[in-house]
Amino acid sequence: PQSLFVEAFVREAVASRKNELPQVAGRLPIEIRENDVTISGKHFFYRYPSTMATRGAARKSNGPIVIVGVLSAPEHFDARHSIRETWASKHDHSVFFIVAGPWKSLKEEFAMFGDLFWVDMEEDYHSITYKVQAFLHAVDTHVDSYDYIFKTDDDSYIFLDDLKLHLGDGRPDYWGCIMANTKPIRRKRNKWYVSIETWPHKY
Fold first, then answer.
1. Residue pLDDT, tens place only, 31-44
2. Model's pTM, two decimal places?
3. Which of 72, 80, 111, 155 could pair with 21 as two cysteines, CB 3.0-4.6 Å apart?
4. How far apart are CA 140 and CA 145, in angstroms?
């Protein structure tokens, strides 16, 4: 359950102006910043917290700076809060939750934690690619300094310190599973169906 402090903070956030979010003791003020991006011919508008832009301003260690994007959905508040309380708790301003859907349902959480990255589009399975690409654009455009961008989901537990150690051993351009020569699925009943209009190419 939320504490009385959080509840009071939410009430203050609701009353605040659009781009001036309330300040929590010991934390820099969070501002809503906005930008847009075109992905595969589609234009998207997004909002990100000012904490993202200041994250890479200074290095606290000799290790790589890893900016983490966690795919989530508006209704997954409990999952996000669990991450904030566990593996992301020691990595302030480097872990961000990538969400879409109605801004109204997320603006209070944005104000409370300053770790949401919101894309103005419908939240569904087919929005994942656009959400991730918008996040990549935002980090590359607005973060002062970083070494890697790491994408994960809100049902995963990441040992970030171990990840940084492994990344420090080399300089991979991409770390993950690559499926080469994969054709889009055209069967409409399949979860991963891709229409000709969305992707007209063979691979």
1. 999 999 999 889 99
2. 0.78
3. 111
4. 9
